[in-house]
Design goal:
This protein has 471 residues and is of the alpha+beta class. The chain contains eight helices and 30 strands. The strands form four sheets. It has an 18-stranded mixed β-sheet that branches. The N terminus is likely disordered.
Length: 471
């Protein structure tokens, strides 16, 4: 996620037309949450029934998202709480959050690869290239606790550089300007597959067992390709875990077949973790320190993990060191991103990995037509001439000895109306110029319990069949 003022003039007239509907405030406040569990769902924005087209779409948006993660500044703009995580057919999971007084519940994409929390806002919300209809929106004037963020509010500085605030808040020449009524400048956020723009609000976040007043949230007026709000769970000040003071969060992603099953698993938020003890049966690897990049960059807000090697069929893939550890410019390394569907590998790493698969599966026929249609490779025909097909085991090996042995369904997927083809669900990214070399997507994390231990800066996981609940 990145913020920019470069498109300010393009959006400012439309955005300010909505300002009379929202009250103003320049005050700041902080709050902590209690233990909360939230359902996690799987979001759908692609209604096409054609599986090949859908897979090609998922591959395309995974690559677009990878490009945004690698180039974040290009065109840049509780005790425990448990909530459902619902799988959807476009490749991401969603949660429901309630804002306002009285509270209104809205769906949000659950995203560890970005930071800002925002919802579609006002009755005149504009969304280009959005097939979803109707789009649930938040109406600020219907909430007695909604307030605009003033220029002097410290939280305005969470979403804008100081120079942007100084340029846009000229009616507030100094921090001592008591009569300043100017609001925080509109934000613009650009994602891999879309963008959104709106006004910063303070409102009450209503969790199942606690209310958090003055939560900073975006009231988006204009969006493209983003019909649902996004709940950013990254490492920045503006993210949901940071605003709630979360010490750790965890989830278990139920498996998906690119459809809306109506079942969910749970996201657990923990802000009272005072123990350094490891959770039961989890393997841990350290989260790397934020890469030392020049200036303010979203690269420092991603969850980097210490991937040391990848093995295929028990054979180590010789990945160059510079791909495994980020350098001083933030290039290289591995991040975990719940908002990316298929795992993204830099072109060099991808070719090394698939070469090993192709070598070990040389007896089986490639489905080249399906590779062309889906953008996935290698793909193999499940022909009746084979009594059985043997797939090489795939493992991710992390610092500290943690090993993630992927279930076959997490790296090869059945494709086609007759389920007679399987394809590797990892994507090559030819953009080698910047950003992480490896982005671990949610498809590879299905049926794993994963934990982000923010207090102790470690990432934990264990394979398990995730419990699902009818939503």
């Amino acid at each position: 996620m990145a913020f920019s003022s470069s498109w300010f003039l393009l959006f400012s007239f439309t955005l300010f037309a909505f300002l009379p509907f929202i009250s103003s405030s320049s005050s700041s406040s902080s709050s902590s949450s209690t233990i909360t569990t939230i359902p996690l769902s799987f979001i759908n924005t692609n209604s096409s029934p054609d599986l090949y087209q859908k897979l090609a779409h998922l591959a395309s948006i995974s690559l677009a998202r990878a490009h945004r993660i690698k180039n974040p500044n290009e065109n840049a703009a509780v005790s425990n709480t448990t909530t459902p995580l619902l799988p959807r057919s476009y490749g991401a999971y969603s949660i429901s959050l309630s804002f306002g007084t009285p509270p209104k519940s809205l769906p949000f994409v659950f995203d560890t690869g970005s930071n800002f929390v925002w919802f579609p806002c006002t009755r005149n919300y504009l969304c280009q290239n959005c097939s979803a209809s109707p789009i649930p929106t938040f109406i600020p004037k219907d909430s007695s606790s909604a307030k605009r963020v003033g220029c002097l509010n410290p939280k305005c500085g969470w979403i804008h550089e100081k120079t942007v605030i100084n340029n846009r808040c000229q009616d507030c020449p100094s921090p001592n300007s008591k009569n300043c009524t100017q609001i925080c400048p509109p934000y613009i956020i650009i994602y891999g597959s879309g963008l959104t723009s709106g006004i910063a609000l303070l409102d009450t976040l209503d969790l199942p067992n606690k209310k958090i007043p003055n939560f900073l949230v975006g009231c988006s007026i204009l969006s493209s390709h983003t019909p649902s709000g996004i709940a950013g769970f990254g490492r920045g000040l503006v993210s949901l875990p940071s605003q709630l003071g979360i010490k750790r969060f965890s989830y278990c992603l139920i498996s998906h077949r690119f459809d809306d099953s109506g079942y969910s698993s749970s996201l657990v938020l923990d802000s009272e973790s005072n123990s350094d003890k490891k959770s039961g049966n989890l393997s841990y690897t350290p989260m790397l320190k934020n890469p030392k990049v020049r200036g303010k960059s979203s690269l420092s807000e991603y969850y980097y993990v210490s991937l040391r090697k990848i093995s295929v069929g028990g054979k180590k893939v010789r990945i160059p060191y510079e791909n495994l550890v980020p350098n001083s410019d933030g290039k290289g390394g591995t991040i975990v991103d719940s908002g990316t569907t298929f795992t993204i590998l830099s072109y060099q790493v991808f070719e090394l990995v698939i070469s090993e698969f192709i070598k070990q599966m040389k007896l089986y026929k490639r489905a080249e037509k399906i590779e062309f249609l889906t953008g996935l490779r290698p793909c193999y025909n499940l022909s009746s001439e084979y009594k059985k097909i043997e797939f090489p085991e795939m493992k991710f090996h992390f610092k500290g000895g943690a090993e993630m042995k992927l279930p076959l369904a997490n790296y090869f997927s059945l494709v086609g109306d007759k389920d007679d083809v399987v394809c590797l669900t990892m994507i090559a990214d030819e953009n080698e110029s910047s950003g992480p070399s490896i982005i671990l997507g949610n498809f590879q994390m299905q049926n794993f319990h994963v934990e982000y231990d923010l207090k102790n800066e470690r990432f934990g996981f264990r394979q398990q069949l995730c419990k699902s609940y009818k939503s």
